[in-house]
Write a structure and sequence with these properties.
By secondary structure, the chain is mostly helical. The protein is built from five helices and no strands.
């Protein structure tokens, strides 16, 4: 739930990836957003929004199998 909401609201900074323990993609998203002076934050935000919606629509079993195991 937290990863989904963070993906929707803070997806441009990769916060949802940090929550899931996926540090490499999280750092990439954060750096793209910051180092491009916000220009890269737009596509990263869209990616975060889509991923957040995907996280929230998966069942608990699917989410666990996909992102935890």
């Amino acid at each position: 739930m937290a990863a989904g909401l963070c993906g929707i609201f803070l997806g441009a900074f990769g916060i949802h990836k940090f929550i899931l323990g996926l540090t490499t993609p999280a750092v990439i998203m954060l750096l793209v957003s910051v180092l491009t002076c916000g220009i890269g934050a737009i596509p990263m935000g869209i990616i975060g929004l889509v991923e957040g919606i995907i996280y929230l629509t998966k069942s608990d079993e699917e989410f666990y199998e996909t992102y935890i195991v």
